[in-house]
Structures are given as structure tokens and as C-alpha cells.
Amino acid sequence: MAEKKVKHPSVDERAAKGKGYREKTPVSSHTDWRPAPDRPDPVALLEEQNLTREQDLVPVRHGRMLVSPFTFYRGAAKIMASDLKDTPRGGLRVQLCGDAHLSNFGVFASPERNLLFDLNDFDETLPGPFEYDVKRMAASFTIAARNNAFTKDETRDATITAVRSYREGMAEFAQMRTLDIWYARLSEEQLMEAIDLAVATQKGKALKKAAKGMEKTAQQSVAKAHTRDSLQALSKLAEFADGEYRILSQPPIVIPVRELGDSYSMSPDEVEHAIREQFRAYRATLPDDRRILLERFEVIDVARKVVGVGSVGTRAFIALLQGRDQQDPLFLQVKEATRSVLEDHLPKSKFKQPGERVVQGQRMMQAASDIFLGWTKGVQDNRYLYWRQLRDMKGSAVVEGMKPLGMTFYADACGWTLARAHARSGDPIAIAAYLGKSDKFERSITDFSERYADQNEKDYEAFADAVRSGRLEAVEGL
After folding, report:
1. Alpha carbons within 13 A on the beta-carbon side of 12
2. Residue environment code for 243-273, b if the CB has 16+ CB neighbours within 10 A, otherwise e
3. Closest C-alpha to 296, from 276, 320, 323
4. Which segment of 149-158, 297-306, 430-439 scores lowest on mean pLDDT?
5. Average pLDDT taken over every residue of the chain
6. Per-residue confidence band for 259, with pLDDT thresholds at 50, 70 and 90
7. Is 46 left (phi over 0), alpha (psi -120 to 50) or beta?
8. Cis-peptide, bond into residue 252, ω within 30° of zero
9. pLDDT tens by residue, 313-366
10. pLDDT tens, residue by residue, 421-469
11. What pLDDT does 1 receive?
């Protein structure tokens, strides 16, 4: 196969490309969004997703989405993907997260054991128009701020800050050398320094107090993240019985495979054999040094574990591994990878294996990725999985507890982080030229976000009506 010829246009040519797209699709074109006349029934789209999910967990998914319009939005990536297909796009493509709402950002450990802030969910990742991620992120801030009872001005400020940070971040990356973009990251130290600066620059007693509260919350969250490792998971998720550790049964959220019975049409012996085969296949997808490292661990136990909101019902497991002895545990998370919701409307992934799609997209977008990130095909037909560490110093913000100052600060961090992720795979010079130097882009996207938040509330009510009428079953509180 002939090697693809790679073009290397000049800086001026790349900037001209972005300006050309701006003339074709002005940044103001993102205003005045309205749902398409033939917009699909949002409840029907969720029902379509449910067909391939674990049927006993579908009511749990509905229950988690039923909590509020904000939690509904978290689980409604498929609905928004359907809406985004009809929105303007400039023509500049990047590796998309595909579900860049504000709860899918957080902290985790780099391979060097430094804490980084970054995107942390890539189930829907796919190449596509950069605007898709920006709109998903921006609308999530509008919806979250409304959920927290912010005023209209406070809600707008958080949303516009996220988009402005994206635009200004992309302008920054457009001026950077190529490798400097690749190595850019938001570390724990940088994050805390920014919070210290925010505290120092607040004026007025009320704002000073709010800033101090934000700082304390951040310090507690970072400290908690440092404690989240496999040893901590062992104390929370396992029990010592008959001389060995095994995963604790906590149905329906955590169910060891020894208790799943015939859920997967396999006997206990067949399940155990399948797990060993899966583990070997997964190891083969890792670079040699990491594969050899992982070979020093053996699988002790596996359990099904419910995770997230939108992911509930897809197959998800945790695996307890042991290294030199019982005090050398390693927990891995194994998640099912399905087609990205964006593949219904964008060119399908070049990877035939959805697990590889997730892994390669994550590696492209994150400043640093989990050393044990890999994939495998499931035991059953048309089931695909990806693997990573569980609780590797991972931490996320409690969005529902955020105050206006804290959410606006968080929006600034998320906007910059999304820009950095896009700059790794896209053309930051062309994107920056498209976005321009004025505030037109953020005002346009904020207008979209407000309109989309209104639609999300209507969709949530339709969803709640479907539960009340018995069309959908929901189990709340889990």
C-alpha cells in the first residue's frame, strides 16, 4: 500500500483556510438554533439505545436520568448527536470527544504519577467538526447552572466563559510550536496556582468568601484524588474470605461473576475460561513494556459494575488482579464499546473494533493516557470492550454543589482543556483564524446553548411523562 502523501501548508495558508471557512459559515450562524421539523422523538432514540443494553439495568439508567434535566442531558448524547447533524459547521475537523459535557472532565494520574486535569470519557470519540464538542460542552454549563438555580446572568457568564476560554486557548495554541502543543497540559500545581490567583484578585467580602470556599473544595477534591488507588479500592470493593480477597457483592450495582448465573449463557467454568482468554487478548494490545509489566499480575476475581449515567446498561466490569502478594492489588475497569452515537450522522470510524476506536481517540486527545489502556473483542458476537485502570487517582467535580464563582472558574479550565485536546489532532492555526479575535463566537454559541437548554427541558419532561405513563420503567435511588 502506497504511503499517504502528507501536505505541509504554510502558516499563512493555514490561517487563510480558516478565514475562508469563516466567510462560508460565519460564527454568527450558530445563533437562533431551532429543532428540525422532522426531529425524532427523543424517547424513541433512548429506547433504540436500550435494545442492546443489559435489560435488568435499563430501569437503573432511566432512574439516574430522571433525577433532573441535568442528569437527563448527561445520558442524552444520542439525542444531541441527532440535533447537531443539522447545525452549521465551518469544515474544520478534529478528533472529537463526542460527549464533552462538563462532568466528563476531571483529574487523574499521569504515568509519571502527576495529577492532571483533562477530558476523561471517550466512549463516543470520533473525528468530526470541532463545533460539536464546543456546543456539547457549552450547553452542559447552561443546563448545570440552571440546575443549581443560578440567575440568568450567572448562567450566561459560566457558559460564555467556557467558550471564550476555548477561543483564547486555541489562539494561544496557534502561536505555539508543534511539540509544545503536544506537551501542553494542566497540572495540579497550575490548577491550584490559578485558584490562588482567583482568590487574591476577588474584591468585596462576599466574593472573597466565595473564592475561599472554592479553594477549600478544590483542595479537598485533589487530596481525595491522591488517595484513590488500587489499595483504596481493595478496602472498598473487596472482602477477605477463605484466605483470599474477592470482590464484594453489592447488587445491583456490583455483582461478582460467580453470582451472575446464566446471564451470559455460560457456566461458571466457561465464564472463568472466557475471562482468562479475554485478559490474554487484551494484554496483546499493549506496548511490549506494559504487556510484560501486566503479565506479573494474575486475575483473582471479576464483577459486573454499574457506572455513570449514559453508560448504564452497557456491559461494564471490574477485575481484581494480584501482583507479588495480596497487598499488591491492581483493579482494572472493563467497559463495553459500542458504535459512537456520532456514527449515525458522520463518517464511520476507520477502526472496525469500537474498543480500539475509544482507545486511539483517547490517546490522541489526552495529554497523558493510562499505561494499561487497551481493548479486546468480547466473548459474544458484536460485543467489544476496552480496558483501563480503575481509580487511578481519578477525581471529578461535584457539579451540583458548585456556586457561580466556582463554576465559572471550572468553565475556564474546561474550555482551555478542550481547545488543547482539539489542537493535538486538528489545525489550531486554521481554527483560531475561523474563531477570530472578537467575542462573536462565544456569544453565538451561548445563544445556541440557551436555546438547547430549553429544548433539553422539554425532552426531559417528555422522558418523565414516558416513565409516568409506563412506557419506560425506572428504578430510582441507585
Report:
1. 0
2. eebbbeeeeeebbbbeeeeeebebeeeebee
3. 323
4. 297-306
5. 94
6. confident
7. alpha
8. yes
9. 898 999 999 999 999 999 999 999 999 999 999 999 999 999 999 999 999 999
10. 999 999 999 999 999 999 999 999 999 999 999 999 999 999 999 999 9
11. 47
pLDDT at residue 135 in the model: 98
471 has pLDDT over 50: yes
Q: Which residues pair with 387 in a beta bridge?
A: 334, 374
Q: How many whole angstroms separate alpha carbon 108 and alpha carbon 105?
A: 10
Q: What pLDDT is recorded for position 149?
A: 98
Rounded distance between C-alpha atoms, residue 434 and residue 27, angstroms: 8
Residues in the chain: 478
What count of Cα atoms within 13 Å lies in the side-chain half-sphere of residue 465? 10
Phi, psi for 303 (deg, rounded to 5): -145, 150
**Model pTM score:** 0.96
Residue 2 has pLDDT above 80, yes or no: no
pLDDT exceeds cutoff 80 at 266: no
Q: Which residue has the higher pLDDT, 204 or 360?
A: 360
Cα angle for residues 144, 92, 310 (degrees, 5° grid): 35
Q: At what angle do helices 58-65 and 440-469 cross, to 10 degrees?
A: 130
